[in-house]
Amino acid sequence: MKAKKSFGQHFLTNEAMAKKIAQSLLCSESVQRVLEIGPGKGVLTKYLAEMYPELKVVEADKDMVDYLVVHRIVQPEQVLFMDFLKLNLSKVFDGEPFCMIGNYPYNISSQILFKMVQYRDFVPEMVGMFQKEVADRVIAPPGSKTYGVISVLVQAYYSGSLVMNVAPGNFNPPPKVQSAVIRLLRKENFRLECDEKLFRTIVKSTFQQRRKMLRNTLKPLVTDAGILEDTFFNSRPEQLSVEDFVILTNRIAPFTQNTRQDEP
What we know:
This protein is of the alpha/beta class. It has nine helices and ten strands. Helix 7 (196-208) packs across helix 9 (242-252).
C-alpha cells in the first residue's frame, strides 16, 4: 500500500497495521463491494481480498498493476488501470453501492474526499490513510482551529472518527509527515434540508475570510443587506456547525444572487 507525495512514493510495511486497517472497514452485509484506491504492492489488498470477494482496485501506476497481477494478489479483472479522479463511481459496480478504502495519494487526498461527497449516493463508508493534518481537518469539530471547508462539506453527509495515528517509521521510505487513518460513515439522512449548491457557496465564501463576521462575507451574495443585521450574523464561520450552515442557507436563500457552486 502506498501513499504518494509530490516528492515520491511511500509503502506501508507494517503488516499488523495493514490488517487492522482492512478490518476497520465496517461494510454492512448488504454492501460487500469494496474499491481500494492506490493499492501499490498490495500490503492492504491481500487482506481485503480475503474478506471481500467483490474487491476492485484502481491504480494509475502500470508497474504496480503488473506487480499485483504477477504476484496474484488480485485477478486482472479486479484492476481498474486509471486515474481515480477520472473514474465514474456510479459505474464501478454497475450502479450498486460500495465501500472505499485506501492509503490515499496525499497530494490529491482532498480531491478524493470531495469526489466521494459528490458520489455519496454510492459510498456509504470510507476508510482512508491521510496526512494527519488533513485527517484532523476532516473530523474537526466546530470551534477548533482546524475546522474549515472540508470539515463542513464532508460532515454534512458523513460522521467521522479516528481509527489510528501512523508514524513515519511504518513506511518505506518514511515520509516527512505524520499520518492518520480515519473512518467516515454516511449519515442515515444525508439530504440537506436546504439548497445544497447555495450551502456549498456559503461555506466556501465564508471560510475564505474566516476571521471576518458572516455579515461581511455574505454581503456580496445577498440582494438586501438589511437581512444581515440580525445578531446571528455576528458569528464567524468556524463557530457554525453543519446544522447552523443549513439554517444560514435557508435564511438568506430568498435574498441571494444567482451564485451557486458546483459539486466540490
